[in-house]
Amino acid sequence: MAGAKSKKTIDVSIPIRKETATIGLLSIMLILLMFNQVTINNLNTGLTTKSPGLANLQATGQATAPASGTLDLASVAERVIPKGVPEIYGPELDVTFDDPIKSLSIISALDPTLGANPIEMNEEQKERYIKILTVPTMTCEFCCGAKTAVFPNGDPACGCEHSYAIRGLTAYLIVNHPDMKDEQIMGEISRWKVLFFPKQMTQRYVQEAQAGKFTADIAFLMLANGDDPREIAAEFQTSGATSTLDGMPDMVGGC
Questions:
Q1: Do residues 167 and 79 share a domain?
Q2: Please, which residues have CB within 8 angstroms of residue 189's CB and are 6 or more apart in sequence?
Q3: What is the number of helices (H) and of strands (E) in the chain?
Q4: 180, 170 contact by CB (below 8 A)
Q5: Which of 131, 124, 161 lies closest to 148, judged by CA?
Q6: Beta bridge partners of residue 156, listed in sequence order
Q7: Residue 204 and residue 217: Cα distance in Å, rounded?
Q8: Which comes out higher in pLDDT, residue 112 or 233?
Q9: How many separate domains does the chain show?
Q10: What is the mean pLDDT of residues 169-176?
Q11: Same domain, 118 and 165
Q12: Are residues 121 and 50 in the same domain?
């Protein structure tokens, strides 16, 4: 009789333990599922608010491209080509962006080596002059192929009028406006370079903006115009040209 009771106790207790264990496992799994769902929801919310670019992800996992626009090259030229009188030195030299031929003759005469009215520099000023004018694209490569306006020793690297003007303006600003930063001077060089080579510089501006990589002349031109190169790149990279620059001159002034 005692053995039978013991057997019944064993038979009944085993299912109870299995049922208890099963309920326990189900409870744990439910808690984990609830925790994971809350975590995923929080993570998705964080990604959407902190990373705007991820909001464009579709179910495929691919980013949605921004809607492409159109790029009117004539409007770009209007933005790029400077107008009016340069604020800092324009009245002093009687130069204006609106008369590039006359202005070219004035600033080209200031070339410290070859100009008719050369600017004189001390050694410190000449070092700065060489530093600026050995930066690639701070020159007249479109007409002469020169890679820089001067050689490392300061001698002229090109004998065209545009190169005279670039060297003359640089020397003038270094001597008469020493508070101007190198970047500002290169910005002014680039503004005149647009006038000297309007078509090529506008084309370079568009091409580099679309690529998101800039040569010194375009980068400093943008800064001189108060533009952020990153914003310009974002604007141009999704646009296709809708016009041409056929009516724009390749070069203004003599080479």
A1: yes
A2: 132, 138, 166, 169, 170, 217, 220
A3: 11, 2
A4: no
A5: 131
A6: 150
A7: 10
A8: 112
A9: 2
A10: 99
A11: yes
A12: no
Give dist(CA 60, CA 38) in Å, integer: 23
181 domain residue, yes or no: yes
Q: How far apart are CA 88 and CA 74, in angstroms?
A: 28
Secondary-structure percent of the chain, ordered helix, strand, coil, rounded to 5: 60, 5, 35
Encoded amino acid at 18, one letter:
K
DSSP assignment letter at 62: P
What's the burial of 232, exposed, middle or buried (CB within 10 Å: 0-12/13-18/19+)?
buried
Query: To 10 degrees, the CA torsion angle through 63, 73, 225, 144?
Result: 110
162-194 burial, b for 16+ CB within 10 Å, e for fewer? bbbbbbbbbbbbbbeeeeeeeebbbbbbbbbbb
Give me the domain span that covers residue 189: 69-241
Q: Which amino acid is at 5?
A: K
- What pLDDT digit, counting tens, does each position of 202-242 carry? 889 988 988 889 999 999 999 999 988 888 888 777 655 55
Using the structure block, give the residue that is written with the tokens 């952020």: 228
**Distance separating alpha carbons of residues 171 and 127, to the nearest angstrom:** 11
Do 133 and 190 belong to one domain? Answer: yes
Residue 254 located in a structural domain = no
CA distance 116 to 93: 15
